[in-house]
Amino acid sequence: MPGRGDVMHEPATSARTDGDASPLPDVRATVLALGVVFGDIGTSPLYALKECVQPAHGVAATPDNVLGILSLVFWALILVVTVKYLTFILRADNEGEGGILALLALVPERLRAVGSPRLGWAAALGLFGAALLYGDGVITPAISVLSAVEGLAVATEALAHAVLPVTCVVLLALFAVQRGGTAGVGRVFGPIMVTWFVAIGGLGTYHLARNPVVLGAVSPAHAVRFFHDHGLHGLVILGSVVLAITGAEALYADMGHFGRRPIRLGWYCLALPGLVLNYFGQGANLLLHPDAAANPFFALVPRGPATYALVALATTATVIASQALISGAFSLTRQAVQLGYLPRMQILHTSRETAGQIYVPAVNWALAFGCIALVLLFRESSGLAAAYGVAVTGSMTITSVLFYVVARHTLGWPRSRALPLLVLFLGVDLLFLGANLFKLLEGGYIPLLIAAALFTTMAVWKRGRALMAAAFRDLMVPLPQFERRLHRASDRLPRVPGTAVFLTSNSEDTPPMLAHHVRHNKALQRHVVLLTVITERVPRVPPAQRVHVTELGPRFYRVLVHSGFMQGTSLPTLLRRAVGSGLLAVDPDDLTYYLGRENILATEAGRMGRWTEGLFAFMMRNARSAAAYFDLPADQVVELGLQIDL
After folding, report:
1. What tens digit of pLDDT does each residue of 501-510 get?
2. Closest by Cα among 527, 507, 518 to 482
3. φ, ψ for residue 145, nearest 5 deg
């Protein structure tokens, strides 16, 4: 009896580990991906090296320090982005979709405690990782745009007062254009990001040619020597080095928007060369001009018109940088809704070509509010940098653990193949995570607070749905027993024209609403359909497999509708399709949909507890209605109320 808290079933998984989900040609998709996926990691040169040599917590820009930091940055890009994500993690796609929740959907059900009020350990890890990404999604636009606009103060102190207002206006404009969808955004942003990577690579090459000694940083010996010289403080600096790889998790989360191959092409052909050349160019310039440590990136060009031009390009690029996390948050939200970890909400499809391109208004404007609030709170990108990194490294660590579980239990890899990768990935991830824990009191607690709030929300929603399903099962009558009652009452129970469709989360027994309807109305429609929507653990279900019909008796049907966790579910369209194919013998224009509207009492008598049940009740009241979510015509819906104490 799904109302606002309907429970969906999850049958066996289907993991795809080869091929590419994107229908777009590679070159076009690569350009679009550059405009959406690579913005975050692509604009890290604006602030990563700057934070490593800041007087407050960095090190002096001496030759040994600069070579050590460059070596750490280079090997972070290689080990984390190229080896971990591009080579391995992107292979664990769920029918072309990526992200931590798509990875969680591949974990065996026994490890996720599907159907149970409690969270399995794997589900708890996955949900907290997803919650950390939302925290990252709030910080990324704020620090990226603010760090670029701060270039105005580098050009002239007279514009320092304009940094905060300009940043807020740019952020508002960014979130306002999200309704156009990632394809529309990518068509505009893609060519700009191509220009960005060419420009930063060109600037880096120019300064690298003036002082090629920094090429020696390719040797990991400089990174080892850096830690030997600085001890514990070297670990603190590593917390700033991690800024160079923020956005790696977004590459995986956004895979469903464009496909695996375009992301790899964009990285190897443009993003990686541009980033390495720019970081090394900044280092080369720092060795010649140590005073450039105040802002190594903008020191790559002379002060004056060149600075203004670079600020304009950087601001545009950082707007694009925010896109990776915003579109990733949209994908995560839809996956969480479909998998039963968040309430239903409005999700708009923005592309006819790619099903993964969506817009979620509630998430969009919540992120907008959070970003602007952080900008006004911290006022400088250096302050935000302290809050950055904890969320990124936390989600990276969780992804490594879940990848090992999926590799072993779903993809069937032997332990001898999966375990060494886990050790390698965790060795790097935990080192970065430990380094960022030093920044907890400086602002690192902010993404953790955001993540804790969202994790609690998802855990409470999951528990409430499971307890509600159990309450419904207690109210349900076995179908054979109900059929016998119906048969005994057939002489005195009028059958009126039309078809009654009862939405139910239970695909075996009689929904309480059907018994309630017969008991109180003393009549029943000529045709009865018991309809259950089942969310599969794959992104999309082929059209031919979406609807299954079983005739339970004369004019009495059980209909199972299968949806992937990245698919919309328009029930009138699917039922009309079933009628057209001969699976269902009803009039599609004469249907009445019966839904349950649950009123959660939230008393001490329930199993959830007053405050958790109160939170669940609040989410239930504010969730998108089942009628709107399943695209049901408003004039064909009847809602029947039921009071429940969980």
Report:
1. 998 887 777 8
2. 518
3. -70, -40
Handedness of CA 77, 82, 85, 89 (dihedral sign): negative
Q: Which helix (H) or strand (E) holds 638?
A: strand 637-644
Beta strand 637-644 pairing with 495-503: unpaired
Helix (H, G, I), strand (E, B) or coil at 509: coil
Which among 429, 463, 497 is the end of a domain?
463
Indicate the Cα dihedral angle 367, 373, 377, 378, nearest 10°: 30
Do residues 351 and 301 share a domain? yes
Q: What is the pLDDT of residues 212-226, one digit of tens each?
A: 999 999 999 999 999
At 155 the pLDDT is: 67
> Quick check: is 423 in a domain?
yes
Helix (H) or strand (E) holding 112: helix 109-112
Is the same domain home to 406 and 526? no
Cα–Cα distance for residue pair 342/352, rounded to 1 Å: 26
- How do residues 170-179 score in pLDDT, each as one tens digit? 888 888 887 7
Q: State the Cα–Cα distance between residues 375 and 228, nearest whole angstrom.
A: 37
Query: What is the rounded distance in angstroms from the CA atom of residue 646 to the CA atom of residue 638?
Result: 24
CB atoms within 10 A of CB 165: 10
* Nearest CA among 242, 246, 255, 248 for reference residue 103: 255
DSSP output for 175-210: HHGGGGHHHHHHHHHHHHHHHHHHHHHHHHHHHHHH
Let me know if residue 75 belongs to a domain.
yes
Residue 133's H or E segment, with its range, is helix 121-149
Inside any domain, residue 25:
no
Return the ∠ at Cα 75 (arms to 281 and 209), rounded to 5°.
20
- Distance, in Å, from the CA atom of 341 to the CA atom of 355, rounded to the nearest integer, reads 21
Q: Are residues 442 and 526 in the same domain?
A: no
Residue 499 backbone dihedrals phi, psi, to 5 degrees = -125, 130
Three-state secondary structure call for residue 550:
strand
Same domain, 173 and 319: yes
**Which among 450, 444, 376, 605 has a CA at the least distance from the CA of 134?**
450
- What domain range is 631 assigned to? 481-599+626-644
Q: Are residues 370 and 496 in the same domain?
A: no
The whole-angstrom separation of Cα 361 and Cα 570 is 20
Count the neighbouring beta carbons within 10 Å of the beta carbon of residue 515: 17
**Burial classification of residue 464, based on how many CB atoms lie within 10 Å of its CB (0-12 exposed, 13-18 middle, 19 or more buried):** buried
181 in any annotated domain: yes
For 456, the token pair is: 């609690």
DSSP letter (8 states) at residue 558: E
Q: How far is CA 285 from CA 149, 289, 341, 403, in A?
A: 22, 6, 49, 40
* Dist CA 303 CA 298 (whole Å): 8
Report whether 507 contacts 478 (CB < 8 A): no
State how many domains the chain has. 2
* CATH assignment of the domain containing 488: 3.40.50
For 407-435, what is each residue's pLDDT tens digit? 998 888 999 999 999 999 999 999 999 88
The DSSP output letter for 86 is: I
The structure's pTM equals: 0.77
Closest alpha carbon to 357 in 37, 11, 17:
37
DSSP per residue, 444-476: IHHHHHHHHHHHHHHHHHHHHHHHHHHHHHHH-
Is 251:258 a contact under the CB 8 Å cutoff? no
Q: How far apart are CA 632 and CA 630, in angstroms?
A: 6
